[in-house]
Design the sequence.
């Protein structure tokens, strides 16, 4: 399993996102994604699924 770039928790699914606060693409877990998705200039770049 991969780790979330924000909270460092391992998970099987991560979302590739960026926003005004996170200018470069990062991978976030569902919990962190729910916060980032509400930020200004939020962009979704796909879903990463790991084994």
Sequence:
């Amino acid at each position: 399993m991969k780790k979330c770039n924000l909270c460092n928790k391992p998970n099987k699914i991560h979302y590739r996102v960026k926003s005004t606060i996170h200018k470069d693409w990062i991978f976030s877990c569902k919990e962190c994604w729910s916060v980032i998705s509400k930020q200004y200039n939020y962009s979704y770049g796909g879903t990463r699924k790991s084994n």
Q: What stands out?
A: The mean pLDDT is 96. The radius of gyration is 10 Å. The longest strand covers residues 43-49.
